[in-house]
Design goal:
Blueprint: E1 2-5, E2 8-11, E3 14-25, H1 31-39, E4 51-56, E5 59-66, H2 74-88, E6 94-96
Antiparallel strand pairs: 1-2, 2-3, 3-5, 3-6, 4-5
Helix pairs in contact: 1-2
Amino acid sequence: MVCLHSAVVCRINEVISMQRFVAELSTPIEKADFERSWRSDRSLNDKQSKIEFTFDRRRVSAVIDWDSSERWASASFYRTFSAAVRRSDRACNIRWL
């Protein structure tokens, strides 16, 4: 049995929490450049392996899987993501959807 409710996937005896962020960039950036910039942020530590980025032209989606009740505060994620984008392209603006 699998049920989907907002950002939570429920399975028998198992709950996996997910967060999803979507941003629109003013100019497209290369996924490889962004991911290299993202990995260069030493403050992320173990958070890096739990995030999947999807690029579609100027739109970027980030899905974060949590295997516990721990969640990433939105403001903190926005700052970390924005810093990674700016390391790749200083002139790129970000609009959160």
